[in-house]
Specification:
It is a single chain. By secondary structure, the protein is of the alpha/beta class. The chain folds into 3 domains: 229 residues, 2-enoyl-CoA Hydratase, Chain A, domain 1; 194 residues, 2-enoyl-CoA Hydratase, Chain A, domain 1, CATH 3.90.226.10; 34 residues, no CATH class. The protein has 20 helices and 16 strands. Strands 1, 2, 3, 4, 5, 6, 7 and 8 form an 8-stranded mixed β-sheet that branches. Strands 9, 10, 11, 12, 13, 14, 15 and 16 form an 8-stranded mixed β-sheet that branches. Helix 4 runs parallel beside helix 5. The termini are far apart.
Amino acid sequence: MTEENPRIDKLMAMRASAKLGGGQARIDKQHAKGVLTARERIDLLLDKGSFREIGSMAVAPKDTDPDTALGDGVVTGYGKIDGRTVYVYAQDFTVQGGALGEMHAQKICRVMDLAVKTGSPIVGMIDSGGARIQEGVYSLGGYAEIFRRNAIYSGVVPQISLIMGPCAGGASYSPAVTDLIIMVRKSSYMFLTGPAVIKTVTGEDVDFETLGGADVHLATSGNCHMVGANEKDAIALARQALSYLPSNNVEQAPFAETSDALNRRSEALNSIVPDDPNTPYSMHDAIEMIVDKGSFLEIQAGFAPNAIVGLARLGGRSVGIVSQEPAMMAGVMDINSSDKISRFVRMCDAFNLPIVTFVDSPGFLPGVAQEHGGVIRHGAKVLFAYAEATAPKVSVVTRKAYGGAYVVLSSKYLGTDITYAWPSAEIAVMGAEGAANILYHRQIKNADDPAAERERLTQQYQEDFLNPYVAAKAGYIDEVIEPAETRQKLIEALQALENKIETNPPRKHGNMPV
């Protein structure tokens, strides 16, 4: 039997109170809606028993109410994911709807600062009604402090935002600056102005889900990178994504043991590209056959589906995968795919992930809408991202590599370390028929049978110029490889590039055409 100790008793009582957040009744209300609490979410994210809380008894500076919930509406601290330290914050909707105030923001900023000091990732779980109106400029200043850290710490440690509920107004700028946004289908949403304001200003009728739900941001706006069917799935995606990333920008990409043979051949790749250059095929299938089995984690799967980006492993090494999808819009480049690719390439480069690019694109999408929408500016982002990237870069031209789309997509001109091509590769300014029409216009026009002459000259151009061997002879392709051996070739190239050191000229920062 232990002696009574009022001091310890008070400590235990305050700890218990802090863990209840806004109280048992509000916790029960969360559960009734099928929603987890902030602490339950943290427990799912981190390795079992590893969470250590910081600031559990904090309250707003001017709040003198003895019954005020401790913790000020956000749970902050650190723990482990797969044995690696991660800092985390989770907004507690049971306390003032997770609304952000001065102390709330200070707690978030504190774990962000500690994450950078220790070189650890930061995961934020957003579930908030926005800024506390009663705190006025103090809550707005709190948001600004978080935003500034999001920006300054970008590319220093991985930042992942899990949108678990509402994220409205200016609050949505914080996740927008982080590396990955993961949302929960039918449960979370983001927008700057809500349905009521939109109705008043523009007269448009829209509900929360249609305006800023997970599927809208995954497929239409491109703001979201992955979507979980429920909270547990979303949290599992965050854990999975972190498994591919180093803890900070100084470490190298993580390595995971694999039972997938390094020299495994995929004979199906030898026939995956159709003989007809206008017939589509699935680059998703090709990627799955090349990377370590089951390791491909696609990012922004619903947005700009004519491009593919994602994380994977090759021989156990984490890599970033970039490609076109010839089964969608023939793999053409456009405004959205340019944004998708450039941002992903920069994320990979920031965290030393080798970038493997598969090229099959007929060029940039023509049209007034694209030109007026700034396709030049957006396309330039891709070349900027590849040109400044110093991580190992390996590219494989599988079929079409025409014009500007070829140049900007990890071509040797932009500093790619190793460039491969399949025998099916077509590297040229444009397709054979278009080139023949321009080069031999007069000859075709004056021929006895213009159609037959066009076909003959097109075939001649195809044989003379539209093949990988011309580029290989000129040194722009390092090796023409058998598709079935692509996996082995990529793994060997990445092993050779493992200790690559490259630095760009000193500068404050570049001026990317955003």
